[in-house]
Write a structure and sequence with these properties.
This protein has 6 helices and 16 strands. It is α+β, with helices and mostly antiparallel strands. Helix 2 runs parallel beside helix 3. The chain is globular and about 50 Å long. The model has no long low-confidence stretch (mean pLDDT about 95).
Amino acid sequence: MKIVTWNCNGAFRNKFENILDFSADLYIIQECENPAEAKHQKYKDWAENYIWIGDTRNKGLAIFAKPEIKLKKLDWPDQYQDHSVKHFLPCSINNEFDLLAVWTHFNNSPNFGYIGQLWKYLQVNKDKLNTTIVAGDFNSSAIWDQWDRWWNHSDVVNELEKLGITSLYHKFTGEEQGKETSPTLYFQRKLGRPYHIDYIFGAQKFSEKLKNIEVGQADRWLNISDHMPILCEFSID
């Protein structure tokens, strides 16, 4: 099984063919158009099996799957106290495991923007996270941890680990959070501003079966997006 996550930086209708060589079973794409409202026929034809959410038809979060895979959107709450967080897209894959697609936002929340959104989402959905993959653009890194906050990147990583869900990149490479050697973002597409802010986390059944993980290279992807795709491959059906 292969899973790819990628923030396409918009206009996915003109870019989706770039990811086809991965031959992935599942693609988690941030900043993509809603295929149902797109006017690009090749994009609509390719996107025959998907789930999409978004504030506008031009920029949302989607899970695309091979035609034979059964996707079922799950009704997990996104309300934490009086605040609705975004964007999180949970779904069931073949009724075998759950996938939580992530594209965190500032969301008008100066204290709980980005990783704080995911922290809030975890608080109301911990009981559902078991044999789960959590993947996408977290817009976060341990290098931005602040000592006076309990919803830092490292706090979220620790909360996931308590649930048996670990970062597959870090397991595969042995690198530490915040000390990654493979950037997933080049801010403003500048090689001198690299960050690792996209992730694929997986429960034990996935970490035990992890065969390979790859992060796209700038010379291949930077002219297409400021984010690099991440590919995970597992030795399971």
